[in-house]
């Protein structure tokens, strides 16, 4: 009588062990760069496409993606922002409720040429969800400094000049704390996958 019971108990223990192992499966890893706890981000006061004042605090309670670039950029900015917003569109299609909690932002580092209207047109070309921001040189300098971005005038080229800048697409939580640098250097699928992990 005890033998069948022993086998039953062993079978139950094996089942519970298997279930426990499955429950301890590691969470999927992000493909971007973990920025949790880093001193990235902070207050700014800029203007949108209509010249309306926009502050960092206006987005409290929302996740935010932030990319620093400029509209005259011949390659990096359109490539990165394209991948970012294609990834966001994939995420939005799969998780519309969670995507509604995210505000994508494009911040110009070239206020001498990037007027509010021009930044607005640039942002709209990638997504109606993307908000373009610019401002005075002093306002841009403050934002660049707080977000630990790189933004310096580069070499002169026919018809103008280039800007040297960082290529990070930051993701922040609803409290404005950094989560990660999204993998725009990979592809839209990687961006969508990371958003699905990080945006709750």
Task: Explain what you see.
With about 200 residues, the protein is of the alpha+beta class. It has one domain: Glutaredoxin, CATH 3.40.30.10. The chain has helices spanning about 1-25, 75-95, 95-100, 115-125, 135-145, 190-200, and strands spanning about 35, 45, 55, 65-70, 100-110, 130-135, 150-155, 160-165, 170, 180. Strand 7 (about 150-155) and strand 8 form a beta hairpin.
CATH topology group? Glutaredoxin
CATH architecture heading: 3-Layer(aba) Sandwich
- The count of strands amounts to 10
Please give the order of strands in the largest beta sheet: 1-10-9-4-5-6
Distance between the termini: 52 Å
Number of helices: 6
Profile the largest sheet: 6 strands, mixed
Helical percent range? Answer: 25-40%
List the helices and strands in order.
HEEEEHHEHEHEEEEH
Strand content: 15-25%
Assign the structural class, choosing from mainly alpha, mainly beta, alpha/beta, alpha+beta, or little secondary structure: alpha+beta
Shape: globular
CATH class: Alpha Beta
Radius of gyration of CA atoms, rounded to a whole number:
22 Å
Q: What is the assigned CATH homologous superfamily?
A: Glutaredoxin
Low-confidence stretches: 1-21
The overall number of domains is 1
Mean pLDDT: 90
């Amino acid at each position: 009588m005890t033998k069948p019971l022993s086998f039953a108990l062993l079978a139950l223990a094996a089942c519970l062990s298997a279930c426990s192992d499955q429950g301890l499966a590691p969470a999927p890893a992000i493909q971007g760069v973990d920025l949790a706890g880093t001193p990235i981000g902070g207050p700014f006061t800029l203007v949108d496409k209509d010249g309306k004042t926009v502050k960092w605090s206006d987005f409290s309670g929302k996740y935010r993606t932030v990319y620093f670039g400029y509209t005259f950029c011949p390659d990096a900015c359109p490539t990165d922002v394209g991948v970012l917003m294609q990834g966001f569109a994939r995420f939005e299609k799969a998780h519309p409720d969670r995507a509604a909690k995210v505000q994508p932002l494009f911040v110009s580092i070239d206020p001498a040429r990037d007027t509010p209207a021009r930044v607005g047109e640039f942002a709209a070309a990638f997504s109606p969800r993307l908000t373009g921001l610019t401002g005075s040189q002093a306002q841009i300098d403050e934002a660049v400094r707080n977000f630990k971005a790189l933004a310096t005038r580069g070499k002169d080229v026919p018809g103008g000049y280039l800007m040297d800048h960082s290529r990070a697409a930051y993701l922040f939580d609803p409290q404005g704390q950094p989560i990660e640098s999204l993998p725009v250097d990979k592809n839209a699928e990687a961006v969508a996958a990371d958003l699905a992990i990080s945006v709750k």
